[in-house]
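User: Can you predict the 3D structure for this chain?
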Amino acid sequence: MGKSQANREKRILDAAVELTLRYGYDKTTVSDIAKAAGISKGAIYLHYTSKDDLFEAMAWREIYDYADQMIAYFEDETIQWSFVGMYSKALEVIANNALLGAMIQGDDIMGTFLQRRGGQMGSIKRPYQAQLLELMQQAGTIRADLDVEAATYLLNMLNYGFMEAQRQIPAEERPSMTAVIQQQADMLERYLIPADGGNQEAGRQIMLKISQQMRLAMQDQFNQQTTKDEE
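Assistant: Here is the predicted structure, written as structure tokens:
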């Protein structure tokens, strides 16, 4: 893809994100996106075969951005890494991406799109969640006496509860995001981490490997869906 095509694609996806957050998927049309991007409707179809194809690319871009930010975090050896710190970083990235948050919690702004295709995206992370805490426990990163199944479920509850609270509680009634993430980190530190601090470097290496695997899985699934759409 040439530079001009890449720039045009970015404008299309940026416009799609902005309009989706404002009006929702169901009320946003390809014509609306073309107008906001400053191009013709026909030009959009040079990149995407349908509205769903366009929104698929938009959604994957946000997911890729999240994955890339997390991989960069794991690769940064200047950071004093910890499992709890990683968890806090993930929440911070999600909290700063309104569209990603909406996709994770199945928000109405993504409308019928998630009903048709949202399950494909959500299915990527689940196999890795099942093994993550067990690997961390084996590496000595988290407490050896944790019930891994229950702990995984509780962490998922916190994830979804975090996003739901963002939606249900008015901004003026919420404490700062920094304070919330810090308080949650303090709680998880006491719950998850061994008294001696555990082997956090082993945990970082595990997370880097898993994140890279997830990124490849995301790309493979997107490529498969794109091929299917073109058939």
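The chain has a mean pLDDT of 84. The first helix runs from residue 3 to 23.
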